[in-house]
Write a structure and sequence with these properties.
It is found in: Membrane. The chain has 15 helices and no strands. The protein is mainly α and about 375 residues long. Helix 9 crosses helix 10 (about 220-255), helix 10 runs parallel beside helix 12 and helix 10 runs antiparallel to helix 13.
Length: about 375
C-alpha cells in the first residue's frame, strides 16, 4: 500500500499530521503586528509615566544645557571606575544652584510675613496710614489724603476691612499651597535622580538617540535632532543667562535707588526677565514701591533704567544668542517661547523654540528639495 496519506474531501492533511510545520505569516503582516505592539507599549509607557514626564523633560533640558560645561569637567577630571563621582558632583551643583535662591527667597518671605503681621496689628489699633505718595500728587493731594483718612485711617474701618478676609478660604489656599509644594519637591527629587543617570550614561544615550533618528528618519532625522539640541543651548544662553544679567544690573539700580528689599526684587526681576515682556512687570513693581514712599525721582530712574536694559537685551543680545545658534528668525523664537510657556509652563521656554527650530529646518529642506526638483 502507498505510504502517502490520501486526504478525504473536507479534511486538511497538514492539520492532521502532527509533524507538519505550522503556516507562517507574511513579512508584511508581521511588520504590522510589530508596529501595533510597539505603539501599544509606547502608549502604556507614556500613560504610566505621564505624571513624571515634566521631571524627565527638565532632566533632559539640563543635560543638554550643561553639556559643554560637563565636557570640560570630564576632560579635567579622570573618570572613576564606576563613573559616579563626576555625575554626582554635577547633580549636586545643579541642586545647590536651584535651591540656593529658593532658600534666600524663603527667608526674605518669612521676614516679610513678620512685617505684614506687625502691619496688621498696627492697623487694627491705629488704622491704616495714608501712603506717602498721596501727599505728592500734582493735584487733589489734600482731597485724596482726607478720603483715605475717612475710609481707612481709623481702627474701626481697618478692622472691618481686615475681617472681610475669609479665614476658611485662606486656610484652604494654604493647604493647597502646601500640597503643591510637596508635589513639586517630589518631582524635583525625581528630576535630580534622572539627571544623575543621564549624566552617567550621557554618551550611550546620545549615541542611541542619534542612531534611532538615523534608522527612523535617515540623515535628516539626525540633523533635526542636532538642531533641536542647538536651540536648547541658544535658549539657555539667550533667556536664562541674559535674564540673570538683567536681574543683576537692575538689582544694583534698586539698591542705589533705595527700593525696599533690592535682593529679593532683583531675583524676581531675573526670573521675570527670562520670559519675554516679563521684566517690565518686575521693575514696574519696584517703581510703585518707591512711589508709595513718595520718591518720585528714584522711581523714574528705575523705570528708565529698566527700559534701557530690557531694550538692549531684547533687541541686540538675545537675537544674536538665540537666532545665531538656531539659525531661526527671532520672530519664530519669540512665538515659540510664548506659545511654549502658555502650553507647557516654564518648560515651554525650552521646548517651544526647539520645536520651532525643527519645523523651520524641515520646511527649509522641503522647499529646497522642491526647488531642486523644479
Amino acid at each position: 500500500m502507498d505510504s502517502k496519506v490520501i486526504a478525504r474531501p473536507g479534511t486538511d492533511p497538514v492539520a492532521r499530521d502532527p509533524g507538519a510545520a505550522a503556516p507562517t505569516r507574511s513579512p508584511r503582516a508581521q511588520g504590522v503586528a510589530r508596529t501595533g505592539l510597539v505603539l501599544v507599549l509606547a502608549g502604556l509607557g507614556l500613560w504610566i509615566l505621564h505624571g513624571f514626564l515634566p521631571a524627565l523633560a527638565w532632566a533632559v533640558v539640563l543635560v543638554i544645557a550643561l553639556g559643554p560645561l560637563y565636557d570640560r569637567a570630564e576632560r579635567g577630571l579622570p573618570r572613576d571606575r564606576h563613573n559616579i563621582l563626576l555625575p554626582g558632583l554635577a547633580t549636586l551643583l545643579v541642586a545647590l544652584v536651584i535651591l540656593g535662591p529658593l532658600v534666600v527667597l524663603g527667608i526674605e518671605a518669612a521676614r516679610e510675613a513678620h512685617d505684614v503681621l506687625d502691619f496688621v496689628r498696627s492697623a487694627e489699633r491705629q488704622g491704616i496710614p495714608a501712603p506717602e505718595f498721596l501727599n505728592h500728587l500734582p493735584f487733589g493731594a489734600a482731597q485724596a489724603s482726607a478720603w483715605w483718612g475717612r475710609t481707612f485711617g481709623h481702627p474701626e474701618a481697618a478692622s472691618e476691612l481686615l475681617h472681610r478676609i475669609d479665614n476658611g478660604r485662606v486656610l484652604g489656599v494654604s493647604r493647597n499651597l502646601g500640597r503643591e509644594v510637596v508635589h513639586r519637591a517630589v518631582l524635583f527629587g525625581f528630576s535630580l535622580l534622572a539627571l544623575f543617570f543621564l549624566f552617567r550614561e550621557r554618551d550611550a544615550v546620545r549615541d542611541q538617540a542619534l542612531t534611532a533618528c538615523n534608522r527612523l528618519f535617515g540623515p535628516r532625522g539626525e540633523r533635526v535632532a542636532r538642531q533641536m539640541v542647538a536651540s536648547v543651548h541658544g535658549t539657555v544662553d539667550g533667556l536664562v543667562l541674559v535674564g540673570l544679567g538683567e536681574g543683576v544690573l537692575l538689582g544694583i539700580v534698586y539698591h542705589f535707588a533705595g527700593v525696599p528689599h533690592p535682593v529679593l526684587l532683583g531675583a524676581l526681576t531675573a526670573l521675570a526677565a527670562m520670559i519675554p515682556f516679563g521684566a517690565p512687570v518686575a521693575f514696574g513693581l519696584a517703581a510703585v514701591l518707591l512711589l508709595a514712599q513718595g520718591q518720585t525721582v528714584p522711581a523714574l530712574v528705575v523705570v528708565a533704567s529698566g527700559f534701557v536694559v530690557t531694550f538692549v537685551a531684547d533687541h541686540f543680545v538675545r537675537p544674536v544668542l538665540i537666532g545665531g545658534t538656531t539659525k531661526l528668525p527671532f520672530l519664530w523664537v519669540l512665538l515659540g517661547i510664548l506659545g511654549g510657556v502658555e502650553t507647557f509652563g516654564l518648560l515651554g521656554l525650552f521646548l517651544g523654540p526647539a520645536v520651532m527650530a525643527a519645523l523651520v529646518l524641515l520646511w527649509r529642506d522641503f522647499t529646497a528639495g522642491a526647488e531642486r526638483a523644479g
